[in-house]
Design brief:
With about 230 residues, this protein is of the alpha/beta class. Helix content is about 50%, strand content about 10%. Helix 2 (about 40-55) links the parallel strand 2 (about 30-35) and strand 3. About 25% of the residues are buried.
Length: about 230
């Protein structure tokens, strides 16, 4: 298939780096963004990631994603490099309503929901000097984060490879279109990969959470079914 052009935010570390390298290895074009001034503690690793991406042909632009006007101008600059952007990858919380809103414009959405992957996520948060006893539940979660740092089971390089395959309809996801699926097919937003599924859980822990939630939803539905279907006009 013809190379696709990816616009990937935050390529200086974590999933952003792995996504850029994986897409480049698949033969696609990559335009990645980094903050203009990374923190001192991250400067060396950021420079290494940028160097690795550029050595494989990736293009790097500077962008602070909290600067809305800059986002628009940088995206236009990205489009001018290869003439268009085919795939946008951003680590953002997006709802499934976005998929329905963009489907008429032939824009496909894939919600990637990863489990615990060995990125810098658990070391990136900043703690206040004290949270106090009333935030005990938060303290407990943060302590778990500390204990899990560097022990996460997920390999971000493998996750990036699965995402690229999902977008391209190749590798382990080839044939999704033949199997049929749920939300993506119902919205008619594609043929294979992204167009056939809306959500892509990654990691055994993510799949297990999916299964627990699905069973809980089934239980709720069966419990309230009679009341739920009693509200239409006679």
């Amino acid at each position: 298939m013809a190379p696709q052009t990816w616009f990937i935010t935050g390529v200086s570390s974590g999933f952003g780096t792995e996504m850029a390298l994986s897409a480049l290895s698949a033969g696609d074009h990559v335009i990645g963004t980094v903050r203009s001034t990374p923190s001192r503690s991250k400067a060396a690793s950021s420079a290494s990631a940028v160097s690795a991406i550029e050595s494989k042909g990736g293009k790097i632009l500077h962008l602070d994603v909290t600067d809305s006007p800059a986002c628009s101008s940088v995206f236009k600059e990205a489009e001018s490099i290869y003439g268009q952007v085919d795939v946008l990858f951003a680590v953002e919380g997006l709802s499934e309503s976005l998929a329905r809103e963009t489907a008429p414009h032939n824009t496909r959405v894939l919600l990637v929901e990863p489990g615990a992957f060995r990125t810098n996520f658990l070391s990136a948060y900043v703690l206040p000097k004290t949270l106090g006893n009333k935030y005990a539940p938060v303290n407990g979660v943060l302590e778990k984060f500390k204990g899990a740092k560097g022990m996460q089971p997920g390999d971000p390089a493998k996750a990036a490879a699965r995402i690229v395959e999902a977008v391209r309809g190749t590798g382990m996801v080839e044939g999704w279109g033949k199997k049929g699926s749920g939300d993506g097919k119902a919205m008619g937003v594609g043929a294979v990969g992204v167009g056939q599924v809306l959500r892509l859980p990654l990691g055994k822990d993510s799949v297990e959470r999916y299964e627990v939630k699905i069973e809980a939803l089934k239980g709720d539905l069966e419990m309230v079914r009679e009341a739920a279907v009693s509200t239409d006009y006679d």
